Amino acid sequence: xxxxxxxxxxxxxxxxxxxxxxxxxxxxxxxxxxxxxxxxxxxxxxxxxxxxxxxxxxxxxxxxxxxxxxxxxxxxxxxxxxxxxxxxxxxxxxxxxxxxxxxxxxxxxxxxxxxxxxxxxxxxxxxxxxxxxxxxxxxxxxxxxxxxxxxxxxxxxxxxxxxxxxxxxxxxxxxxxxxxxxxxxxxxxxxxxxxxxxxxxxxxx
Length: 205
Hints:
Blueprint: H1 2-6, H2 18-32, H3 37-49, H4 54-59, H5 62-69, H6 75-92, H7 101-104, H8 112-122, H9 133-141, H10 152-162, H11 168-181
């Protein structure tokens, strides 16, 4: 699945100093919303070729940053958020990223799913389940939530209520890959799915 080849865990420079690596993780998460993994990965590669650090982004003008990250979804907004967040990281966190979900979601353009993934990948800390559109859709289809949830945050709370904590880390990328390949938003490939016998939503033919 694209997430396995080009997901956020593959986008940062693993040879960079830890602080730079953590910043790159956060940036790739900010770029990834409403954007295919392939597009995020390509944008991150272009940024990294310029030397992707807090200082390099602060020195870059908005037009250049926009040209580099285009065609990620909502790229104009993301230019603004990236600049604002990077400035806050420089002023308030010494150029590093915060160590808590509460502080991460205060940053412009960073939502709960990104914050949980950032904690997981950047700080190697699991403090919640990262629920994106795939996890939200699939767990509802499988009835892993007691009653249907409308928003990813509701789904996160419902899943954390019963799913053993040692599985919190892997559920995101497992279900994202599954959602990219098989349990599609429209016309899911139920006939090819190994879960069709246990899935309440399976369209059995």
